[in-house]
Write a structure and sequence with these properties.
single chain; alpha/beta; Jelly Rolls; 3 domains; 11-stranded mixed beta sheet; 6-stranded antiparallel beta sheet; 11 helices; 24% helix
Length: 472
């Protein structure tokens, strides 16, 4: 039977704020080697024997960023297919749509390997061995989960009590006392959140244990448009109206905790879910004082700190056990013992409607990026980069005027009824109410400065008429 890896790419990664934001979640965080967690998950999947395609379930707003990450590392030309959610409905919905698509596109005997996009696995050989064992169990009709051999009494993970390959029970995140008991007993493993089963088996299990999720997902798949990507693989855009009817439940709760055919593969694969800044800091080597530094920093009499900088120099004196995370628009200071509570900052920002929970100062779009350089009452200044051959939508703004100055490259501009080229050091003015479009017809990046002025400068003041990326 063929093996189809399914990467679930979503979540907010609130405990890794301010690097992780709602529109730039944890899977896209780059590690010291320059690769993102998502890229590592993809490379881990395509390295498995017999894998010819990877299916990713993600938010439609993250599609182009995901595609860019895959394109950067997909040197083997593995096919990439996508199920694009309009909003998150938890992991049971993601598994249901993936299983329905897999059965239809590849046959219901296909073995599905469900992976998280934001985990790290250090031992690829041990991982491949564990997958091979799980595949055999899946082919025998089992619903397989991967249990990671615990090294410490960790309170941040769920646990599985196992008797050989049989699952006895699933346990939520325990107290420290309980975690110590579990570790000492030798009967418990960490719940990795990775699964393996055939499409036929999981559809049967979901029909038995959560039929309302499966039926709502099936109805949504029927009415959602599908297209083919450049490699011939599917791109399914789930319709918001019907997808909202799918119950918001985790796969563990909907299926695994009720399943009579659950099996566990015990493994020691160097697994971590990188769930906090302390976990991420452990990936970097420490100096003689226990400090871990990424970026440019000067430390004097500093102990056991994690410092992650960006474009600025960070200086620290006489502190210890601190987490210092610097980004262009937000700075985090936290005690290492309170790393899990960073999510409280994220939640408060979201409750206040502050943009720092959602976007970075540099925002990725299908056509490139824009960075907010400065803003104030009635003005905003952006640096815009447009990829070669890319184009912004044909659009209009009700409340703002825009001045465009080309810094490098060549721009093809639609401004009202006129279409013309703007070269380096040239500019154009777009009055409010004018239809306009910006395109890069060249083979190098187009870089320009945009100065907005007007009574309202929100990103939602946009009416799209045409868009090659399907955002109208």
């Amino acid at each position: 039977m063929s093996l189809l890896p399914i990467i679930l790419c979503g979540g907010a990664g609130s405990r890794l704020w301010p690097v992780s934001r709602e529109s730039h979640p944890k899977p896209f965080i780059r590690l010291a080697d320059g690769e993102s967690l998502l890229q590592k998950a993809f490379l881990r999947a395509v390295a498995l024997p017999g894998v010819k395609e990877v299916l990713t379930v993600t938010n439609r707003e993250l599609f182009f960023k995901t595609e860019d990450d895959f394109r950067e590392v997909n040197t083997k030309g593995c096919a990439t297919s996508f199920i694009l959610e309009p909003f998150g409905r938890n992991t049971a919905a993601a598994v249901a749509t993936a299983a329905l698509h897999t059965a239809k596109a590849h046959g219901d005997q296909t073995v599905m390997l469900v992976l998280a996009a934001d985990h790290l696995i250090a031992d690829q050989a041990a991982f491949a061995k564990a997958v091979a064992a799980a595949q055999k169990l899946a082919e025998a009709g089992k619903v397989v989960t991967f249990g990671v051999q615990p090294q410490t009494p960790e309170t941040g993970y769920g646990y599985i009590e196992a008797d050989g390959e049989n699952v006895v029970r699933f346990v939520e995140k325990p107290s420290l006392e309980k975690a110590r008991e579990y570790l000492a007993s030798g009967k418990f493993v960490w719940n990795s959140g990775m699964f393996c089963f055939t499409a036929r088996t999981i559809l049967k299990e979901m029909q038995q244990h959560c039929p309302e999720i499966l039926s709502a997902a099936a109805e949504c798949m029927k009415t959602s448009p599908s297209a083919q990507g450049p490699d011939g693989a599917a791109q399914i855009r789930l319709e918001p109206g019907c997808f909202g009817a799918v119950p918001d439940v985790s796969f563990d709760y909907a299926v695994m905790e009720k399943c009579e055919h659950a099996a566990v593969v015990r493994c020691d694969i160097g697994w971590t879910d990188v769930g906090s800044w302390t976990a991420l800091s452990d990936l970097s080597p420490a100096d003689a004082s226990g400090n871990r530094v990424e970026g440019e920093a000067l430390l004097f009499d500093v102990k056991n700190c994690y410092v992650r900088g960006g474009n600025r120099l960070i200086g620290a004196v006489g502190v210890e056990d601190l987490i210092v995370i610097d980004t262009p628009d937000a700075l985090l200071l936290a005690n290492k013992d309170r790393a899990q509570d960073v999510k409280q900052i994220f939640a408060e920002l979201k409750a206040r409607g502050h943009e720092a929970y959602k976007v970075h100062r540099t925002v990725h779009r299908p056509w490139g990026t824009y960075s907010v350089l400065e803003e104030g009452p009635r003005f905003k200044i952006k640096r815009i980069e447009v990829k070669p051959g890319a184009s912004l939508s044909l659009q209009m703004h009700h409340h703002r005027n825009e001045h465009w100055v080309v810094v490098s490259g060549m721009a093809k501009v639609v401004n009202g009824e006129n279409e013309f080229f703007v070269s380096t050091n040239e500019s154009t003015y777009i009055p409010a109410g004018h239809k306009h479009r910006l395109e890069n017809p060249g083979v190098v990046e187009l870089v320009m400065i945009e100065v907005q002025s007007g009574e309202y400068l929100g990103e939602d003041d946009i009416v799209r008429f045409e868009d090659i990326y399907g955002r109208t």
